[in-house]
Amino acid sequence: MLAGRLNISTGTFDVREVPVPVPAPGFVRVKVQAAGVCLSDVHLIQGLLKPRHLQGDEVTLGHEVSGSVDLVGDGVEGWAVGARVVLQAGYEYRGVTLTMGVDYDGGWADYVVVPAGVLVPLSEGFSYEQAAIIPDAVSTPWASIVATGGVRPAEAVGVWGVGGLGAHGVQLLRMIGAAPIVAVDPLPEARERALAFGADVALDPLADDFAAAMAAATAGRGLDVAFDFAGVDAVRAQALACLGLKGRLVLVGLSGNPITISDSTGFSYNRKQVLGHYGSEAHHVPELVALTELGRLDFTRSISDTLPLREAAAAVERLERKEGNPIRLVLIP
Ligand SMILES: NC(=O)c1ccc[n+]([C@@H]2O[C@H](COP(=O)([O-])OP(=O)(O)OC[C@H]3O[C@@H](n4cnc5c(N)ncnc54)[C@H](O)[C@@H]3O)[C@@H](O)[C@H]2O)c1
User: Fold this and answer.
1) Which of 50, 180, 189, 287 would bridge with 200, disulfide CB 3.0–4.6 Å?
2) Where is the Enoyl reductase (ER) domain (predicted)?
């Protein structure tokens, strides 16, 4: 089968033939129908992100995956061949978080083998492309908003980075009643998108009047919660300064660099908080599938383009360069 393989030591990525994997007891083989491309994949190829639990040097990328059950390993009950599924992007094993396409082979491939516990059923009409991006592009902002950030209705929220995660962050914040929603992105197209997805205001982080515009948007009180969905160092300093009393900054973007709190006394005096966030919990993906099936969420605008798996390297480049300003590019094996 074809698989998009990254060698962690050399940083080389290529799509090539590998043996079709066989599921061990408790595992299931899934025929991949769609797989999203995330900035984390770009970071992995660049070497900015390193797997923490990978055995060996090589991994098949891809942590946003939907498909159909192809072969059920011994001891797995309740799953029939052909069942439509979306896969949780990882699982806990002996207290360790393992991420698909990072710590074990992922879904930029014709087939992927996963523990049965990560399968989430999809209804007949659910598009494979839209389902694929729920784990991560939607579930990570969802978990960061409702769990880590604990955002309540009518709280003032800032969203830095309106790409794959941030565009959905805006949409989800709108759904749960956060207000105002202040989006921040240097790209004009991303700011337009933020307004279309439900932001009240969209600001350019590099504008001279940024601080005044943020103060105006929050009636001088500052933000209750700020989200870094960009993974850019400048975002952290800017977002911290925009927080109001007891404001919390949630770090979702991954930069790999140290965080500096320059006004540390002001940070303590105003009782600000910085919270790390990673992935989502097991209940978040099924919740989002249900909300979509109930018509509360719609990801038709989220799939910017689909490409054949063979063109994975070109998809990575398009995301890195923001060609066509994609929300999510999806690979089809
Ligand atoms: N913590 C987690 O569980 C988790 C999961 C997935 C992705 N991530 C990380 O989240 C980040 C975003 O991923 P994505 O796939 O949405 O990326 P993306 O490339 O689709 O979007 C990033 C956006 O940030 C914007 N941006 C760049 N500089 C900015 C600045 N100074 N201020 C505001 N916005 C700025 C870009 O213009 C772009 O619109 C990455 O760092 C990725 O590694 C973290």
Assistant:
1) 180
2) 11-331
